[in-house]
Design a protein that fits this description.
Layout: E1 4-9, H1 17-32, E2 35-39, E3 54-57, E4 84-85, E5 91-92, H2 95-104, E6 109-114, H3 116-127, E7 131-136, H4 152-173, E8 176-181, H5 188-196, E9 201-203, H6 211-223, E10 229-234, E11 246-252, E12 255-260, H7 263-275, E13 279-283, H8 295-313, E14 319-324, E15 327-332, H9 333-336, H10 348-355
The protein binds 6-O-phosphono-beta-D-fructofuranose.
Length: 362
């Protein structure tokens, strides 16, 4: 049976990471007497000049962290150890150093808590002989196999509350309020928060929009006596025939990855220009990732963490825990990253929104 386990949080943070860390460590220690270590700052923690930055996780060190946002271990989304940014440009493959450091630490299995990027790295390292068990995390909810990732519910809660608040000020000023939410190439946050917040228009990457269709629906609302309208825009949404919009600065000084952003302001300008409506754009940004996890995410993260611990103890290799219906199941990590899980444009959720009069702009 496994004896020394490491836990790592990778990619963008989200509410519930600490709940998973607590559940994994506590279950492994209490149920199996397995030693647990936390790797600091994702894979960066294994590549430090002075050696690996790991620390023991004990029942005492994880006590009280359940409701805390962020991750006590820190995280990094600087890219893959197979292509780490090199000083002065280009990338370098540092996967062998990772494997050496884990061997030096005598780690049997790494519990990786991450999204598609972290799972892809885990699958590659698994092929090179490092054993991984995955826990699916991301506010974007874009991982296959699992019905939902933890962090998503908390993000939707924040976005919904923002929409709720915008309704009253929109009404007072007779404005069209545009809310840009995160989600990368998936429209899950926009769709769920839009429905929960009673939005009038929801623009998602999976349904390219035509601005004249959006404007027609807003004008129709105004003519029918509605004082205001709410438009929820996913950061990855794009007009038909155009690509998604990006901010010109790269993700970090170390990475060439591009950051989505700007579509909310663009839509606000386009609507104002087309029909003269008084528009204002709100970009929610990282408030969707910060703060305490919702009760749903605390429970899901705890269930995922406990299930991952039991998987580790059973000797599982390259598996990821997932929620399927009411049950926690496990699947091959490679199956979860085969492609992103996107909103079905003809699915029940989109059809329900359309039945309520929501325009998707296409
Ligand atoms: O993947 C989670 C996410 O919050 C996306 O929704 C968003 O596009 C991205 O991360 C932002 O990343 P960063 O924290 O690097 O700005």
């Amino acid at each position: 049976m496994a004896r020394r386990i490491a836990v790592s949080t990778g990619g963008g943070d989200c509410p519930g990471l600490n709940a998973v860390i607590r559940a994994v460590a506590t279950t492994l220690i209490r149920d199996y007497g397995i030693e647990v270590f936390g790797i600091e700052t994702g894979y960066d923690g294994l590549l430090g000049r002075g050696g690996a930055r790991v620390r023991p996780l004990t029942e005492a060190t994880v006590r009280g962290i359940l409701p805390e946002g962020g991750t006590i271990l820190g995280t990094s989304n600087r890219g893959s150890p197979f292509a780490m940014p090199r000083e002065g440009g280009g990338t370098v493959d540092r996967s062998e150093e990772i494997i050496r450091r884990l061997n030096d630490l005598d780690i049997d299995t790494v519990v990786t808590i991450g999204g598609d990027g972290s799972m892809k790295i885990a699958a590659q390292l698994q092929d090179l002989g490092v054993n991984f068990v995955g826990v699916p995390k991301t506010i974007d909810n874009d991982l296959l196999i699992t019905d939902v990732t933890f962090g998503f519910d908390s993000a939707v809660q924040v976005a919904t509350e923002a929409i709720d608040r915008l309704h009253s000020t929109a009404d007072s000023h007779h404005r069209v309020m545009i809310v840009e939410v995160m989600g990368r190439d998936a429209g899950w946050i926009a769709l769920h928060a839009g429905i929960a917040g009673g939005a009038d228009v929801i623009l998602i990457p999976e349904i390219p929009y035509a601005i004249d269709v959006v404007v027609t629906s807003l004008v129709k609302r105004a003519r029918s006596g509605q004082k205001s309208s709410i438009v929820v825009v996913a950061e990855g949404a794009a007009e038909a025939g155009a690509g998604a919009m990006y901010l010109d600065r790269p993700a970090s000084t170390h990475s060439a990855a591009r950051r989505l952003g700007g579509i909310g302001n663009q839509v606000a300008e386009d609507i104002a220009e087309a029909c003269g409506a008084d528009t204002r754009a709100t970009v929610l940004g990282h408030v969707q990732r910060g703060g305490s996890p919702s009760p749903f995410d605390r429970v899901l993260a705890t269930r995922f963490g406990c299930a991952a611990a039991h998987l580790v103890a059973s000797g599982a290799k390259g598996r990821m825990v997932a929620l399927r219906g009411a049950d926690i199941i496990d699947c091959a990590i490679v199956d979860a990253i085969a492609k992103p899980k996107l909103v079905d444009p003809d699915g029940e959720l989109v059809r329900a929104a359309r039945s309520l009069g929501v325009s998707f702009g296409g």
